[in-house]
Design a protein that fits this description.
Order of helices and strands: EEHEH
Helix content: 40-55%
Structural class: alpha+beta
Largest sheet: 3 strands, mixed
Strand order of the largest sheet: 1-3-2
Strand content: 15-25%
Number of helices: 2
Distance between the termini: 25 Å
Mean pLDDT: 88
Length: 90
């Protein structure tokens, strides 16, 4: 469905990268998933650990089942996945 990874950034800021291949679905479905991920990131960015001098890069990879998820479900999964990835990185 969704995969997430987090790691140190060389820029000193919090950045987001999203990947959704054509295997996920047609352009409309891929863009809907990417919009939901961007919306989650926009609301969560102030609370992500950006106080570190090296910053944070968050990468989200959409998989085939991601198009079946509604925006609130995507947000819930990202909370868990990114939270776990940040803890592993810290």
């Amino acid at each position: 469905m969704l995969l997430a990874s987090a790691g140190p950034a060389a820029t000193g800021s919090v950045r987001l990268g999203i990947t959704a291949s054509r295997k996920v679905g047609n352009a409309v479905a891929r863009n809907r998933v990417k919009r939901a991920v961007r919306d989650w990131f926009r609301t969560r960015k102030p609370t992500l650990p950006s106080a570190r001098s090296d910053g944070l890069d968050v990468v989200v990879i959409a998989r085939r089942g991601a198009t079946r998820l509604a925006a609130p479900q995507i947000a819930e999964r990202l909370e868990v996945l990114v939270g776990r990835a940040v803890k592993e990185w810290a």
